[in-house]
Structure formats: C-alpha cells, structure tokens
Amino acid sequence: MTVRELDAAGITEPALRDAYAHCRRLNARHGKTYFLATRLLPVERRPAVHALYGFARWADDIVDSLDAGIPARRRAADLARLHERLQRGLREESSAEPVVLALADTARRYGIDHGHFGDFMASMRSDLEVTDYPTYDDLRAYMHGSAAVIGLQMLPVLGSVAPREEAAPHAAALGVAFQLTNFLRDVGEDLDRGRVYLPADLLSAHGVDRELLLWSRGSGRRDPRITAAFRAFEDLTRGVYREAAPGIAMLEPVSRPCIRTAFVLYGGILDAVAADGYAVLHRRAVVPRRRRAAVAADGLVRLTAARAKARAARRRTVSTEPPARSVAPGRCAGTHPAPRAVTAQPLHKEIR
Question: What pairs with residue 132 in β-bridges?
Fold first, then answer.
C-alpha cells in the first residue's frame, strides 16, 4: 500500500519515499483512529497526511514521554532542536531528518502556511511549563497551536468546494473537538504527567480541584462531583463538534468520507466515556471494535459513491467537449501538413 500511495502522489526520490514511509509507520502505530480514517482518502493524498501526523507525533512524544528519567531541560533542548530543524527544513525544503523532510515536501506541494507549524511548536513548548488552565479561554488559546492549526494544515490537502476562508473556521474547530475528546479520554494519564487540561473554572463549578482528581486516581474510588464535571466537559466538547460539522460539506467530495469517519469515530469516544460512567480517571474508554468496523464500512460506501460521481462528472466533461475540427487533405497542401485529429483526454487523474 505504501508504494501505491507514493507512486500516486508522484513521490519518486528514494530518500523522500523513505521519509514518507517512516511517517506512515508512525501514523499506523500511534494514531489508530486517525489512520483508519486516512485510509478513506484518495490514495495520492495520504502521504501528506502521514507527514503532518508524523511530525505532530514526534513533537508530542518529546513533550509527553512518561520516562521520569528525562529531565525537563533535556525535553526543552530536544524540542528546541526539533524547532530549529523544522525552520531550516521549511526554508531549504530539505532535511537529513526523515520526518522534517516529508513535512517540508508536503508544505511545498500543498502551499501550507509555515506559520501554522510555528504556532504548533509554541503550544508544545508551553506544555513543558504550563500544567493547568484557569479558564476555557485560556485552554482555547493553547489549543489554537496544538489542535486548530492541525485542521488548518489539513485543509489544503483535503481540498474544499467553498472558499478556503469560509471552510477554515470549521476545520480549526474539528481539530479542537478531537483534542478536547482526547483530553477527556486521557485525563488520568495526563494527571500522571502533572497536567490537568480540563479548565479549572469548569471543575470548580462542580466542586472539583486537582487534589480531588489525584485522590480519585490514586485510590480508585469515584466521586459524583467528578462525574458531573466530566459530563459538563463532554457537553462542552459536543458543542465544538457542532461548530465543526458544517465544514464537512465544504470539503471536496472525495475527502468527505475520511473526515466524516474521523468525526464519527472521535464522537464515539465520547459515547464510550459516557457509557462507562465517566470512569476515565481509572481506565481508558475504548470504542468497540464492531462499532469501528461499522463506521469504517459506512465510510467506504460513501467513498465509493463519491469516486463514482467524480468519474461520471469527468466523463460528462469529456463528452461535451467539441470534437476536433477535421481539415480537408488538400486544404493546407504545400507548406504545411494537414493537422492530425485531437483525441480528448480526461482533465484529471482517476481517483483511486
């Protein structure tokens, strides 16, 4: 599958192919929900998504490693070194680091604003210092770089039928919705890292603070105040999904099944959290395998329909083009040969 993706994308240089393949492996290993949805993209666009995810995964791993033996100053140095490689790679469109090489190539191919990558790195740096967020506005400021810009990076790859400036707020909201979902699912693991992403004002409105969360995490015991706070955070997150939803119809039709599938699967994580009684401090909520398979199958049906519609549209375009004008054999005799008949060609590559 990797070879087919790279061939379809026109990526031929061996080192660059290896770089994209490395990113694809990162996506497959760490981003199972996202990787499943990516399989529903047109094959030639998948390498770009793997590159974007691979870079985000690398930076996130530097920040979120649970290895207590890695001091904060070393994490900061590693992140600074990554940022320097990123800047140089984007500037020179080359890098000895595979993930940066693939990212720089993707940014060039799709004209992705380099400022999005700088905003992302700023949020990663803040994770080394900031351990909680007083208000939701504070959290949203952080998520602009950590999540909203991911949606904005993806938008040129997915393509849109609406003006990009109209689709962009919805793409950004979808990135935020996915991250809020992860914050709720991973609240226990984040607490182990010393971080609380749920806003303090939302927690305190239900009588919850960091100490109560630590007590519940450590003792394995439940508290109704925590359940109420987590339910409120779920409601907040679903509101962001509603902000994002209109953007799906603004994407190119062949990209919609991928994003709709991710939308449903991530929303399913919220369903799993609720079904498990908001016990996320004690165990990770998981979308059942059968549910994932059913959503993926629906996405495949939608993708097949979108491809068929695109092919039919191309055939109509070709069939309505005026035929090549024929020229009588003797008309241009002498200095010029008679022109050859022109065979109409499809305007686009077939989407596979």
Answer: 196
CA distance readout (Å), 301 to 70, 257, 298, 306, 307? 46, 9, 5, 9, 10
The Cα-based distances of 27 to 39, 80, 114, 253 in angstroms read 11, 23, 22, 24
Nearest to 55 by CA among 6, 100, 112, 92: 100
Nearest Cα to 89, choosing from 119, 57, 118?
Answer: 118
Q: How many CA atoms lie within 13 A of 24 on its CB side?
A: 19
Q: Which tokens hold the place of 321?
A: 């083009």
Q: How many CB atoms lie within 10 A of CB 235?
A: 10
| Distance (Å, whole) CA 280 – CA 56 | 24
- Give the DSSP letter of residue 97: S
CA dihedral 43, 48, 52, 54 (to 10 degrees): 70
Model confidence pLDDT, tens digit, residues 210-263:
999 999 999 999 999 999 999 999 999 999 999 999 999 999 999 999 999 999
Residue with tokens 């900061």: 76
pTM of the model: 0.83
Taking the C-alpha atoms of residue 175 and residue 218, their distance in angstroms, rounded to an integer, is: 31
